[in-house]
Amino acid sequence: MRGHISAHAVCTAIRDDIVSGVLAPGSRLIEDILAARYGVSRVPVREALRTLQSEGFVTTRHHAGACVAELDEQEAADLLDIRALLEPLGAARAAARRSSAHLKVLRGLVRLGRERARHGHPADLRQLDSWFHETLAQATGSPSLTALLTQLRRKIEWMYVVEPPTRVADSWDEHGAVLDAIARGDAERARALMAAHIERSLPVYRLRRAAPVVREPKRAVNTARART
After folding, report:
1. Helix residue ranges per DSSP H, the chain
2. Given CB 3.0 to 4.6 Å as the disulfide criterion, which of 5, 29, 31, 181 pairs with 190?
């Protein structure tokens, strides 16, 4: 069965474990262990690690090989700035290119979000918010932009804890306003509303603090050299 699991599926599984913290920043990613963990051969694991390295989730350290990348405050700040540029662009593109199926899903998500906000279900709201933005990315009609927006949201989720907002109902009203502009095909209004929504959401993002990374002890040969 191992050969039937694609590198893409393995990449998704490893990425999800990195984002959720199952694989901690700085921890080694050993191909044999990962292959056993996900029930695959080493080949898709190797391909997945290359993809994750290109995305910034994995890095390579001398003597340690592939490791989970460690959180960087400057990169984290940059991600929020990039989001402030790309999400409004995505909303504008969605206004021009969305399908009736996209609108149907988005309306359902906004309806559920407003309902959950009234009854106080924070866990449900986080998932609904993620689905809303993912559907919006798909509605851009651009595979490249969809991929960028999706990767960006995953990295933000990895680097930040999102605190429960004090204005949950207002946040979902903003989602609804963006959706109304997209449904009308008003790209510039969709862009402006999304930019304002992102600006108001910034206070709920709190940078995760990575646990100290335990470095491997120096090799015995180094110690021997130090004594000579």
Report:
1. 7-20, 31-38, 42-55, 73-97, 100-119, 122-138, 143-159, 168-184, 187-201, 220-227
2. 181
